[in-house]
Amino acid sequence: MPLYRLLYAVLVSTLSLFWSAAHAIEHFDAFEDWHTKKSEYASVTYPEGYEVLANRSLEIVDAVIPQLSQFLDWKPESTVQIVLSNETDRANGYATPAPYNRSVLYATLPSGVSELQDYGEWFDFLILHEMTHIVHLDKARDWSYAPRYVFGRNVFTFSNLFQPNFFKEGLATYVETSWDHHTGRGQSAFFNMMLRSEVASGLLPLGKVQQTTRHWPLNKAYTYGFPFYQFLDERYGIDALTGYIDTTSGQLVPFVVDRPARHNTDATGLEDLWLEYMQWVEERYQGQLAALEGTTTPFSKISENGYFNISPKVDAAGNIYYAAFDPYGPSYITQVDGAGTKRPLVRVKSNANIIAVDEEHLWYIQQSPCTHVTYSSDLYRYNLKTGQSEKVTKCGHYTDGVILNDRFLGVKVLHAQRSIVEVDLNAKVETTIFEAANFDNIGSLIAINDDTLAFTYKAGASKWSVRSLDLNTGKSDTILESPIDNYFAIESGRPSDNSTEHFIVTSDKDGLIELWELDLTSKQLQPLTRSIGGASDGQYDVANDRLVFRSYSENGWDIAEAPYKVQRYNSESKETSLRLAKPGKGFELEASPVPKEAANAQPVTQTYSALETVAPTSWFFGYQNDNAQNTLSLVLSGRDALNFHNWGLVVGRDFENDVNKLQASYTLYNHFTALYSKDYDYALGGASAPPEFVDKTTLLEENENIALLAHTDIPFDFSNLRIIGGGNQEQRAADYLLNPALNNTLTVNTVGLAVQYTDASYALYGISPSHGRILSMNLERDKLERDFQAANTDSSDGNVWTVEWNEYLSLYNAHTLALRVMQGYAEQGADVFDLGDSPSSSPFEQAIIHGRDYPLRGYPDRTSELVGYKPEIYSAEYRFPIAYVDQGLSSWPIGLNTVSGAVFYEAGSPNRGSRMFDAAGFELNIGVDLGYSTLPVATRFGVAVPFDRTNAAPDKDTNIYFGFGYRL
Q: 617: closest CA among 596, 648, 638?
């Protein structure tokens, strides 16, 4: 493909399908009964069973939007489309202003010791955060608003969208934080723990924070974002903070970051302001660091790589088990014996929660497929003797639990409501034994004895408390609560001689995330850990009288051990040093948005209709002008709120050659796709051509493609099977302007079935898939029709099959050996394979059914010797990292991620048993970050040396190639 056409395809794809592609991973169940309710500011769409949450969501939105509009001096221009999603048990949400204001809220509650745990009412908190995004990103003024009069809600008319992520997430986190009510991430001990660790080890420069990188913390946009707004508030005043947003909202040119800093602060630009901000953060945490000096608990790390080592458990013999994070490969539950030897046991998701271990079994909970579109947290049992793991429950939605004899007692989440259930592991019967009130939360769970449980509980806007539950009567009593301290998690502690029960509690008491010993009789807390970072999920090791726990540092979470010992320091004397003061004025809602049990008139329930949101809200144009063509295009796209209908359209006119162009795509329910593309290739006349054709079109080749596809995914825990069926019509009509007698048309109609299986894994620091394989197989039937200007029409048909196997072998860390085998077969009446061409990169064409183009590195496109009916390709490639740059140029929208290389040997033949064409070469892959991670691009530079001659390259010329694509 010529470079200009490639660049144009990228531009059109970005403009027409940017937001559709970004949300293609959304997959709401079309078989659910979806309903809609509307209010003044929002329309909420939800599945059956979530009506209570839908009503509450509308009331919260209507309460917070006016206050946010006043604070940011902007009222959203379109109704906010809210979708309540039941896709996962993980709490979160997201928002976007294009193609219209829209937010997806996961209809569940947060669990575990995490950055989201310190909230008031969860859905008040979540909706306030997402609506801040809506108002902020929707806002435009002055020159930046003018293009909306012309292009509508085009993505490029949202100037705040093109600021670094820490500006966007930082503002929403700043707004969600209530210092009056001690809620929100901006005042939480968890985020103070993270920032304090950053200060102790050295704060990150602007270039590390302005783009997405692998460096810890992975949530840099939040960790460094909200303090930035607190800094602006305290140092320059709330007017400077809102003025900063006004300035970014009025910028016509995207990615400009220095101007707002100059206009609203004393800094000369953002980099200068960042240095001032870093100094402010360091001064803010010096008091905490000074108070902790000399009082921290000595401990030893069991894991060393940081990030997400979680869920420690200890058996009766003193063996430690935890879910080990590997930045270069999959996560495994790992056993550490008394000698310190580590042994991976079973592959798990990185957030797996080990709940129990005995002599024979280890029990854990992890996310797994429930249906083809939803995921559930389910119970697994690993046999320590046989090494086999089995899934015990299906679609259970359990977040924590304990094993008590032959019973599983678990925390269940369903329809945004938590409960404690009992599952008979033999009969597989589930019984509810305790239900939390609407929107109340249940955290961790332990067994005091066979008849009593203890669990952490959050009632409404109150702090996390510890409660007990009598399994015989169902009665629950409060064990420990506080108006200012949270008790996030509870585990069994060291038994005492007088039979007093002890628990290990993770709490933010004194403003630190640390472990405390709770005496059940006296209800007294005694500190067990004290650190620069923090500690959570403590376990008492009976065999070695030690404390095993999660330890936080500037590198993330590791598993650590320390002697089990109550710390002796005066926590009260340190309290004023460890609790930070409110910086600046802050943002506070006038009052709690709505009462928990709202009694307002209920909005009318309607059946969901996609017609209300599927129409286009913007348009754009494309333009190509060179010797061959002069084309002007109109670009349109649209999608409905549930992404059931997703479409794109590009209509063009080539005025030079007097032909029309059309490209269209439509996807229904993420399962059915229709594609149409009509485009042209051009050949220009040389110096020997007639004068009127010199540097003008002499060959006009019309390429028309139509495809109808249906696909379904069958997900497994660590793999996926995709089945695709459909038809494709490709028509190539060649118009020889100098010799019309040569005109011809080839039409290829194909029906086929494709099966794709993958269990390849991508690691955080991986440069490609490093473990597993990707397999694909196609069975197809072609019908060809040839129409020659100077001859009769003829037709033929034939069967086709292809098989391809890609295997990825991890050598060391990110170093990977990639092996590939491809074989195909086409009967004589079918269309041919072409090993000298590349599959289409257009979003309006597909390369699955009738995908006959397979590039062979080292050999140029359109090489006649590489066309055949029985192709085969074999390759071996060694891939290795060169540098993990992961940094941008400060205040500029460009940066680098990973630089890697590859050396390869590749051989192929268009007909098995005939001449092989082989080559060897080197590739340099550079991850380029454009627009503060708005457009991460994978670039590839390659040099391939062919070992065989072809008509196109009789001198075996070295082939130099370049490619790029979107990098997730």
A: 638
What secondary structure letter does DSSP report for 858?
A: T
Domain segments of the chain as ranges = 26-293+583-607, 300-568, 695-854, 877-968
HSE on the CB side for 734, CA within 13 Å?
16
Residue type, 390: E
Helix (H, G, I), strand (E, B) or coil at 500: coil
Flag whether pLDDT at 2 surpasses 50.
no
Is a pLDDT exceeding 50 seen at residue 248? yes
Sheet holding 407-414, edge to edge: 398-404, 407-414, 417-424, 429-435
pLDDT of residue 681: 87
Q: Peptide bond preceding 839: is omega within 30 degrees of 0, i.e. cis? A: no
The token pair that represents 844 in the structure block: 């309006």
Phi, psi torsion values for 329, nearest 5 degrees: -170, -170
Q: Which residue has the tokens 């009288």?
A: 545
Residue identified by tokens 């991850």 is 927
DSSP strands (E only) in 267-374: 300-301, 307-308, 310-314, 320-324, 331-336, 342-348, 353-357, 361-369
Task: Work out whether the CA dihedral 52, 53, 58, 62 comes out positive or negative.
Answer: positive
Distance in angstroms (rounded) separating the CA atoms of residues 515 and 531: 10
Q: Which residue in this structure is represented by tokens 């936080």? A: 552
Residues 920 and 945: beta-carbon distance below 8 Å: yes
| pLDDT over threshold 50, residue 649 | yes
Q: Are 608 and 35 in contact (CB under 8 A)?
A: yes
pTM for the full predicted model: 0.94
What SS3 state is found at 173? Answer: helix
Which value, to the nearest 10 degrees, does the dihedral of the CA atoms of residues 425, 429, 435, 438 take? 110
Extended strands (E) in 744-790: 744-758, 772-788
Phi, psi of 440 (to 5 degrees): -75, 160
- Is the model's pLDDT at 925 over the cut of 50? yes
The answer to whether 754 and 740 have CB atoms below 8 angstroms apart is: no
| DSSP, res 528 | -
Class of domain 26-293+583-607: mainly alpha
Q: Which whole-number Å values give the CA distances from 677 to 408, 615, 651, 654, in the listed order? A: 56, 21, 10, 15
**Cα–Cα distance for residue pair 431/442, rounded to 1 Å:** 17
| Strand stretches in 501-587, DSSP E | 502-507, 514-519, 525-527, 534-541, 546-553, 556-563
Task: Report the C-alpha gap between 219 and 170 in whole angstroms.
Answer: 11
Cα separation, 910 vs 423, whole angstroms? 59
Strands 417-424 and 34-38, sheet pairing: unpaired
Question: Can you state the angle between helices 165-176 and 225-236, rounded to 10 degrees?
Answer: 70
Domain 300-568 CATH superfamily: YVTN repeat-like/Quinoprotein amine dehydrogenase (2.130.10.10)
Question: What is the distance, to the nearest Å, from the Cα of residue 644 to the centroid of all Cα atoms in its chain?
Answer: 20
Confidence of residue 492 (pLDDT cuts 50, 70, 90): confident
Residue pointed to by tokens 């009567």: 473
pLDDT of the residue at 3: 44
Structure tokens at 463: 């702090």
Scan for tokens 């063996």, then name that residue.
319
pLDDT per residue as tens digits for the range 185-244: 999 999 999 999 999 999 999 999 999 999 999 999 999 999 999 999 999 999 999 999
Could you tell me which of 108, 165, 105 has the C-alpha nearest to residue 136?
Answer: 165
